[in-house]
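hey can u check if this looks right to u? its 244 residues, i copy pasted from the old doc so theres a chance i mangled smth
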Amino acid sequence: MKYIIFFLLPFTIFSQEITGKVYDSETTVKGIDVYNISQKTIAYTNDNGNFTISAAVGDTLSFHSTFHNPKIIKLTKDDFENTLIVELVKTINRLNEILLQNNIDPADFNEKKQEQSITETITEDSKVNPHLYGTSSEYGLDVIRLAGLVGKLIKGNKTKKKSIELMNAKSLDSLFKNDNFFNKSLLVRDLKIPESQQQLFFDYCESQKLDKELVAKENKLLLLEELVLLSEEHKKILESASKN
């Protein structure tokens, strides 16, 4: 019987789940990607910032979102005994700093993000209160205007997703060699990617399947945001790998 327990114990360890809560300096955060790098499984935080994911002692979890610096945590036995608390740092301050250093008004970026936020808010509300977004005006709201707003914004998003051509490492290398803004200085000074790691970084970016349309002039700030996030994540992964 002792031998049976001995062989069953590892299976029990690898089958357990870990629960956690993610927050930043302001509040709990929903919609965070929680990726178990060791087991290649993924979960997302709910409206209260909570998540549950299958994991084991020694697994590495990666936390990622559009507006926060990624964070990587290697799980210990203690993490399974209580709720795992994860604090993320918002990227907006660093992004604004990069924009200002390169003589770009952060307000342009924020306006674009605000439009996306409005889209998400109206779309989510329409799911909860679909009757408010019909063609009737019996509810006292300008529903035609609201529906038009949602339609216009969503249509714009769908147009971008019709035919996606992905960026590869070669095109990124070419961009940083020839573009006035995305140059070697920005790569080293702002994104903190030393020359010895640049090709590795480009390969990592390619693996993240970036839309090639981000290279267009009107999408410059969106591409910058993606690169800021990926540079932080790339750095964390290399740091984690060097410790193992």
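The two ends are 36 Å apart (CA to CA).
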